[in-house]
Amino acid sequence: MKNSFAILLKSPKFMIGAVLFLLMLALVLIYPQINRKDPLEMIALAFQPPDANLWLGSDNFGRDLFLELMYGIQTSIRVGLIAGVFATIIGLIMGLASGYIGGMIDNILTAVTNIFIVIPSFVILILISVSINSRSSLVTAIIIGITSWPWTARAVRAQTTSLRNRDHVQIAKISGHSTPKIILFEILPYIASYVVMAFVLQTASGILSEASISMLGLGPYNTISLGIIMNWALVFEAPVAGAWWAFIPAALSIALITFSLYMMNTGMDEIFNPKIRS
Amino acid sequence: MNAYSRYFVKKLFWYLMTLVIAIALNFFLPRMIEGNPVSLIVSQMSKGMTDSDTIKRIYETFMKEFGIDQPLGMQFLIYIKKLFTGDLGTSFGLYPKKVTDILASAVPWTIGLQLPAILVGWILGNLLGAVAAYKKGVFDKVIFPVALFINSIPFFTLAIIMLYLFALTLGWFPLSGGYDFQMVPSLSLDFIGSVIRHHTLPFLSIVLVTIGGQAIGMREMSIYELNADYVLYAKLLGIRDAKIARYVFRNAMLPQITGLALSIGTMVGGSLICEIVFSYPGLGTWMFTAIRQLDYPLISGCTLLIAVTVLLANFTIDMIYGLIDPRIKAAQMEEE
């Protein structure tokens, strides 16, 4: 694992993605410490264009959009990471249990996974979000997480079944190691790199899901996220008012975050998956 | 029963199971809401109304439509029975319009937007991806990051940027809608021209993202195939490069074709937010309105329609693959 981390540092794609992501993270964590104002405070007229004071102008309520953007990126990344953790853990548990234990449990879990692969997760996401009245950003993140695990589960299951009959696993079995121990020490290390990649992708898609669901007006309440900024801009007709600063920066931020995560993932893929190395 | 029929029946059973679960989620989730959505909607609708009799009548009609006066299990049975007769209830927000009528008016717009965009994006993306993998070098170094960046831009982000650039700043295209609002839909040249002008921007924003995604997938598959053992073997045998390239791309195409079939299946729900950005009269815009008005029958109708089309597409793909994929065929043979 230490070794593969050293290789990762040599991958330009991974590094570009990682540096971009960390820079953005640093900016949105540090800036609110310097500018301690409340992002929801109305300090200007509606849709004031950017100037020296208001770097990205103001929104329909006359709020500082640059400050909103800093909090928005923060929320979006947090939602993405939490959703990624949930999706990866559920997918990992489902996939490992079904792939390693096999038999009846495999049949049931695979059936459940297949059912949730074909029902579009965005539909479930919309339905759950419509039915929950007060959604915090944590609740939104968890809902996204529990609707997006099936692909991870299927992939982990495929990898686990191919590992199950390898010699070192058989030896561990004969030596009388317990099932959790075998899964933890004999199987998990071999799929670890894959799981990390899946996590990065799940995080990216979590950020996109949050943005989509918030654009529909089903996002978290009492907070600012990139999707919510876009939703405000649409609902209060910022495009018609010509207020590009109300939605272009947020739109670009979403693109930039997902781009950096995709770059990291591609870099990792090229290293852990030598066959695609060009 | 032969192997294929058994495969068919087995798949059919699982898809029916999935359909039942999708319908159940669609029924039960919106009914988990605390409080009574009907009284909420009626209080909003009757704002300013003074005639208490009218208000009471609206309330009772909605209660009946939503069937809240019955126990939940009974409601579910009625819901399913109505589904079979093609009745998705009455819209709360656009009372007394039927949900099915609203969906029927929206779906042609959505398909008209998506189908050409998916096909064009798919063809161009695959060509670009294949060329990038084959030519390598500078070509690859430019196409790949650009494709990756475009692919990271969510549909709606690109849509909103294009809206700003080409509709607002340059004024080349209309801002919103499916046609000029003062026009009456007809087959006149004026109307068709208006539809095309309104179609261009949402179409382009979907095409660009599709090209990016397809190019990445095709590039990866092609590189994978180019490094496969049979390519090396063919090279050692002295087979011409052009011929090898044909084999490689034919193999790399297979997953891409599945991808195309899937995106055609997910088409109905694929561009909800792109439509919202352009207020395009498709499913997405109706759903946006429905969510803002808490129009539960319409929301349910939209989500159910999306789920059913996706299920149908997947089922069709599975059926065709059962016929043509040699691996599935082999599995069927073993069973016999």
From TrEMBL, chain A:
The chain crosses the membrane at residues 14-32, 79-102, 108-130, 182-201, 213-236, 242-262. Gene3D superfamilies: MetI-like. It is a multi-pass membrane protein. One of its GO terms (cellular component) is plasma membrane. Its main location: membrane. Residues 73-265 form the ABC transmembrane type-1 domain. InterPro entries: BP-dependent_transpt_permease, MetI-like, MetI-like_sf. Keywords: Cell membrane, Membrane, Transmembrane, Transmembrane helix, Transport. It is found in: Cell membrane. The keyword Lyase does not apply. One of its GO terms (molecular function) is dipeptide transmembrane transporter activity. It comes from the Bacteria. Belongs to the binding-protein-dependent transport system permease family. This is ABC transmembrane type-1 domain-containing protein. It comes from Paenibacillus azoreducens. The lineage of its organism: Bacteria, Bacillati, Bacillota, Bacilli, Bacillales.
Automatic annotation (TrEMBL), chain B:
Keywords: Membrane, Transmembrane, Transmembrane helix, Transport. The keyword Metal-binding does not apply. CDD domains: TM_PBP2. InterPro entries: MetI-like (IPR000515), MetI-like_sf (IPR035906). The keyword Transmembrane applies. Signal peptide: none annotated. Residues 107-317 form the ABC transmembrane type-1 domain. Pfam families: BPD_transp_1. One of its GO terms (biological process) is transmembrane transport. One of its GO terms (cellular component) is plasma membrane. The chain crosses the membrane at residues 12-29, 113-134, 146-175, 195-216, 257-278, 298-324. It is found in: Cell membrane; Membrane. It is a multi-pass membrane protein. Its main location: membrane. Gene3D superfamilies: MetI-like. Belongs to the binding-protein-dependent transport system permease family. This is Peptide ABC transporter permease. The lineage of its organism: Bacteria, Bacillati, Bacillota, Bacilli, Bacillales.
